[in-house]
Prior knowledge:
By secondary structure, the chain is of the alpha+beta class. Helices cover about 35% and strands about 20% of the residues. It contains 4 helices and 7 strands, in the order αβαββαββαββ. It has helices at about 10-40, 50-70, 90-105, 165-175; strands spanning about 50, 75, 85, 110-120, 125-130, 180, 190-195. A hairpin with a 2-residue loop joins β4 (about 110-120) and β5. α1 packs across α3 (about 90-105), α1 packs across α4 and α3 runs antiparallel to α4. The chain is globular and about 55 Å long. The termini are far apart. Mean pLDDT is about 80; it is low at about 140-155.
Amino acid sequence: RLFPALADDPSTQNQVARINKSLFQMLRVIGNMSDAARYQEPAEQLSEIRDITAILEESFRETAVLAEQAGLRLTFQNLPRKLLMLVDTEKLERALYNILSNAIKFTPAGGTIEASLTQRGKLLYLTVQDSGAGVDPAIRSGIHSRYLRQPGIEDGRYGIGLGMVLIRAAALAHGGTVLMEHPADSGTRITMTLEIRQDTGGALRS
């Protein structure tokens, strides 16, 4: 938010951009580490009813500023109506934060990140696709492993191996799952499904 006020000095502008990028990465790592143990525990029953479209709209709006500073265009197509459902807002926002952070880091300037929220029956599909180089085939099989950092610490784009773990944990907490795809053209497509639950009472499931 302070960035436009310093636009008169290109040197200061570059310094602020680097600080913003470093801060974004540091907050992501700290947040992931503090949540890692809790997210691996059995998911608690969801009890908070929120408008899922409002939560996602706000998250994408805030992240669009960072994407713009990185020279990327971030678009989000939301559902055309409000949808009240049981959610864990913190876990959901953390998952989205990690998905978008990865997309921003691995997409070169001038690229795009396209996201959408669609509904099919009782499931929501949150899809985020970037135009980056995609995930290295050599590390795809271990992408969900905790603390697996590859190719190494020398590549600042890679975190500490918790991002995808927390994304999957958030999806499971909402009765869904995560699918990572690598389209033939380029980039990575992450799809997280969420079950639409609107009853705070107990349920018996097979």
